[in-house]
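Morning F.,

Quick status update on the modeling queue. The single chain you submitted on Monday has been processed. Sequence for confirmation:
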Amino acid sequence: FHKSPASCRIHLGTYRKQKILKRKYTMSTEHMSLAEVESLATDALIGAGTRPESAESMGRAARAAERDGIRSHGLLYVPTYCEHVKCGKVDGTAVPEIIQPRLSAIKVDAKTGFAHPAIEAGFIELIPLVKSNGCVGLTISNSYNCGVLGYHVERLAEAGLVGIGFTNSPASIAPVGGKKPVIGTNPFALAVPDSAGGVAFVLDQSASVVAKSEIMMRAREGDSIPEGWGLDAEGQTTTDPEIALKGSMAPSGGYKGFGTGLLVEVMAAALSGAMLGLQASPFSGTAGGPPRTGQCFLAFDPNAYSGAEFAERITILTEAIQSQEGARLPGDRRKENRQRIEIEGVEVDKSLIKRIQTFCI
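Structure tokens below.
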């Protein structure tokens, strides 16, 4: 018999909930150490056709994401990386090309390969140059999804530098008042060194309310998303991740979030010569060829500017935040996860492990 659209939606919703509950009760996991996470990711990427140096770079990044509790950028993303190597969306054999057009300017052409090894190659040149010049800019073009942006700038802070990073992504945020996505979730990140040779804090946030990978993860796992994370094709809020992925991401703070994303688009795409989010192919799926997105990093040596006063001011600033009950520094939750997971390891869905293993040699 014929069912009305409303009754069909109710029936579909009930079926989806039953399917989700069934999977949650039947899903089995396997315990893995972080070393095993890194090894599995690296082996799978090599098996998919990635050169060992790039695969090792990606393996370290997957390990760091799992270590910090950022599951969406850990092992969950490895099958996508491998599929993209196999279909040509990423050139796994690419060797980044480094150019230094000016004294404090470094350009890296990722050659449509992975962003991580291109960024690492750029940092090898950037860090000593900042120590001598005080400030250096680095851009990456013909690149790809760089994963957790904070992971990269944290390396700069560990070297005693103030690091700022920008990365653009395929369009998924519409301007406030509009419906068609123009910019990506476009995160920026700031990493600040402390006075003891470590990292005071890492700020890493996107122009959207939440990273798109979080919604993609909810869609894969059959979960709904909180109100306000995503919008449907008509610009109305939705809790269905599939509908949100076909619509647009909600900008953080309304027009201010869109403005932040526009800033990142200028730095990571226009300045680097990479593809605009409007032109880039999706990071998900196998269609569209290499996305050719970009990254931009700025690094400052505090000793070239305020010297010892910098560390004093950062100490005062962080203590003013941490001394308040319930207040957190950006990145504190990741640090807590790191301390625990480095000892305990992680639980990984067995079906995900098997899927990754299919790419291994």
